Amino acid sequence: MLYRITLISEEIEDFILEFKLDSDATFFDLHKLILKTCRYVDEGNFSFFICNEVWDEETEITLEDNGNGYSDEDVYLMQNTPLSEFLEDERQRFMYRFDAEDDRYFLLELTEISFGESIDEPCCSRKHGLPPMQIMLEEEDIDTNLLKDIGLNKSNITISGITSKDDEDAEDEFYGSEDFDSEEFDPEGFEIEEGNSIS
What we know:
Number of helices: 3
Strand order of the largest sheet: 5-4-3-6-7-1-2-8-11
Order of helices and strands: EEHEEEEEEEHEHE
Mean pLDDT: 78
Radius of gyration: 18 Å
Distance between the termini: 20 Å
């Protein structure tokens, strides 16, 4: 079976990714795909959380067994857990914690199951927008000159305590844009560029 999984961010409303993986791929495969697509560093306490329909966490699937669970709880490791063990029905919701220190997540949904189809390797099939920065930064920690050197400004990064480059200016730029309609924030409603396979 082929799974199509959609990922969105609560921090950046026009950021969306779509992945295609075989149902027997592991949560570790999806974890690596997310990191590579977002260009995140593979350092941190990453976890998936299987959720119910209102996003309440039910089961954690972690990168490593950190020994924090109760002795009678099952420990699910990404490397050993196929997607199909927890993702059986379309619209199944789950979360991916990419920043444990500030408790930041991506929201994911199993958008489609295609029976009788398969894919050679997991890939990011669609993408739109830029991901949030992997680590929250305080405003005083940001080297503005360095940002200019790499073609960014404060509106491109997530900063703790402010919304963007000049607070209200950036908010007006994005949320006040006539081209943005919050009612259209639906993965199916975006015109999303085709992505390339990621090995």
